[in-house]
Amino acid sequence: MLKKFSEFRDFLGENYFKLFITICILLVVLFATDYLLTPYFKYSLPFNLNPFWLVLAFLFSLAITSYWGLLAGLYLVMAVFSFDKIAFVGGLRLPEVFFAGFLIVWAFQSFRQKKLICSFNKLSLPILIFILANFASLLGTDDLAISVKRIGIIIYLAFLFHVFPHLVKSKKDFVISLFFFSFPVVFSAIYSIFQILNPTYWHVIKYIGSNWAIADLARITAGYRDPNFLAMNIIVVLPILLAPYIAGIVKNKVVPIFSIFFLTTALYLAASRVGWLTGASVGFIIAIVLVRSLKSSFRLIQVAVVVVLAIFLANSLINFAQENAFPKSAKSNKVGEVLEKRAESVAKLDSESIGDRLNAYKAAIFMARDHPLFGVGVDRFSYNYNKYIERSKTKYPSVSAHNIYLETLAEKGIFGLFALLWIVFLSIFILIKSYLKASANDKVFVASILASLSGFLISTLFLTGLYELFFWFTLGFVIILNQIYLVKYENELSKK
């Protein structure tokens, strides 16, 4: 065990190993604080990274090594954009923060060596046009301050996107970045189990609308504020762990299989219909692309068994919480009953949740009709919603369009939508070209990023994730794969 730990430390290198320890300490402290302080709040702490967290992050960063105080600086930069809370539409989540911290530390090290920390790439032009479309939408906004703040966030995310691919120079760098991208999400998934075992969380539901409940209990968020975004980020990370395992190119098979187990458990506890649908789609993509032999088929069956066991565990946790929260009236759920109830709500088009989304789609289309070129302004969908749909028609009126493309069209007009679609389709095209040029083993990594991006894009048919750091970092992985495979391949051709 110690030997494997030493090998892991040697693989990461001294600096990244220290960063890994820093992040682990912060995650433990933040999650422990959430667990202990939940009784004093109406609902589980959303980890808005208020000044308390900033001070905590700063102290722990300095405790490891002085220049990693930049982690705290990163939080402060984001706090400037969000003022009272880190709220990139739904709230900035811990795993995203820590991966961004890893990136900032990496960039700082390059800066100390007097190297450039960012560069342009194949997605730079559509991203620039998208940013310009955001500025153009100011012509239609009714609240300049809020819209400008959101544009500042987009510029910040675009900057991080340009930093990330520039720093990755080798396959080892790529694998290390995949690790830092994945492990905080797995950490959050493990915390979800502790969250549902927390007695003070069982009665949270009385403070939250029924759309946030399943089996009479609050849906698990694991520090993401919204269970749907917890599910979205799990879906983005799952292929990164799943693809190498099915392909059989990982030496340590215990870590990925346990990670898949905990991620699936958290996905079930989140009770996100979008997450379940997208998870099935991503699993199908991975199976189609990577199952090429009897061994890979067997490993796929192993994963299926792990998924079933995770569902059993999640259902047992729900039963335990029910029986303790409502001892007189609790009825144990049969395995799959939660899944069945959520599936039924999708089939009922007249349900409150579905009706809310349909009204949001209508409102977005009406806004685009009245403001086709530049939209109603960045982050102004919710404000303009009641001009088109009476909020009283739904019990839980929408605050977003529940669709990234419709919301972009409504808020940023046809120019914004055009730029977004350009980014999406160009990314897919780059990944397909990278897949065709990569070796057999390397195809696995390309397939995993393609599945991750596909999972995100499917999710955003029902959610709005434009301000999700994970989206921009996934685009960064697209460019990295382009650099590793396509540029190298083109250079080899030019030498012949």
From TrEMBL:
Residue intervals passing through the bilayer: 20-41, 53-80, 86-108, 120-139, 151-168, 175-194, 229-247, 254-270, 276-294, 301-321, 413-432, 444-463, 469-487
Membrane topology classification: Multi-pass membrane protein
Statement: the UniProt record of this protein carries the keyword rRNA-binding: no
Compartments where found: Membrane
Keyword set includes Transmembrane helix: yes
Any matching Pfam family: Wzy_C
GO cellular component, one term: membrane
Alphabetical keyword list: Membrane, Transmembrane, Transmembrane helix
Primary residence: membrane
Family matches, as InterPro entries: O-antigen_ligase-rel_domated, WaaL-like
Domain O-antigen ligase-related: from-to ranges: 259-421
Protein name from the UniProt record: O-antigen ligase-related domain-containing protein
